[in-house]
Amino acid sequence: MDNLLSEGLNLLVFGMGFVFVFLTLLVISTGVMSKLVNKYVPAPAPKPQRSRSSAKVQSANAGANNDELIAVMTAAVHKYRS
């Protein structure tokens, strides 16, 4: 019985040790890859800002789309309930 217990503890130590070493290497390799990517890949170019007039046109179109969406949703609920 003592031999079985020592083998179980041995397996426990080796198993947990292997998992710990693997996870440690995974964290280190992820950190190294992150540093390499940040070093060699350029940052994305900033997006151009929209003018205020185009924002007003889009908000007016959004209002029309919302009215249509509300009508479609109301019809679907009415159809579902009947």
Automatic annotation (TrEMBL):
Keywords, alphabetical: Cell membrane, Ion transport, Membrane, Sodium, Sodium transport, Translocase, Transmembrane, Transmembrane helix, Transport
Catalysed conversion reaction: oxaloacetate + 2 Na(+)(in) + H(+) = pyruvate + 2 Na(+)(out) + CO2
Enzyme class: translocase
UniProt main location, coarse: membrane
UniProt topology in membrane: Single-pass membrane protein
Membrane spanning stretches: 12-32
Subcellular location, record wording: Cell membrane
Co-factor(s): Na(+)
Entry EC no(s): 7.2.4.2
Domain of life (superkingdom): Bacteria
Quaternary organization: Heterotrimer of an alpha, a beta and a gamma subunit.
Similarity section: Belongs to the OadG family.
Function: Catalyzes the decarboxylation of oxaloacetate coupled to Na(+) translocation.
Name of the protein this chain belongs to: Probable oxaloacetate decarboxylase gamma chain
Species per Swiss-Prot/TrEMBL record: Marinobacterium zhoushanense
Gene name of the record: oadG
